[in-house]
Amino acid sequence: MARYFAGCDLGSTTGKAVILDEAGDIAASALIRAKIDPVETGREVLDLAVKQVPELSGIEDVAYLVGTGYGRNEVPFANENISEITCHAVGAHFADPGIRTILDIGGQDIKAIAVNEDGSVLEFAMNDKCAAGTGRFFEAVVRTFDVSLDEFSELSLKAKRVVPVTSQCTVFAESELVSLLYKRNPPADIAAGVQMSVAKRVFTLARRVGVRPKITVTGGCSRNKGLIKALEKTLREEVTILPLDPQLMGAVGAAVMAFRKA
Fold it and tell me: What pTM, to 2 d.p., does this model score?
């Protein structure tokens, strides 16, 4: 029977799983919204990935499984748990060996990771004491605009100017946005201000590790085109879009580590 290797990333808002085959190629992947119980999230997302591989009857048939993310200690059947910072670096290197800076904008935190030529971590900086600029922040923002995240992203790209948004706190930012809307500022211009505010926050963190091309963004906010545009303007560098789903990078890295360990 062929051997398979898996990585499971239990984040604050989503659960991800990736399975590699004996050649080190991706055989399956899955992503779901996180449940209250991280063990339940892990079982469900792993089961979804396993069902895509006919030779596997269950996750227990996987040769080696690495858990990562906030809930890495709760990944069912994991042989080992590895930091999400290491896994994001390994995953991004797997997707594009030229990546040297990773900006991981997740559900509840932001990480800036400097990556070596072999995919190892040179240095990292993390902001996990405030939700400003994270996925949770954008969820609050799009509720104020009564649109989806994709619609908000497209809206910000239509801006004719950038209306400054100064509040960093998620709660205060919501109040500021309502005030700006009531003052008849164009929604697109306010949306662009939100994107630029987050980009500047990410840039401050990135400077602590050094910004080196190639730069990429991972995590759920990676599909926010308006944020990518604001980051490129702030960083004065192009942001590389990875050929694999950026939300899966932690799970990809964990699966690659499992492949290496086995």
Answer: 0.89
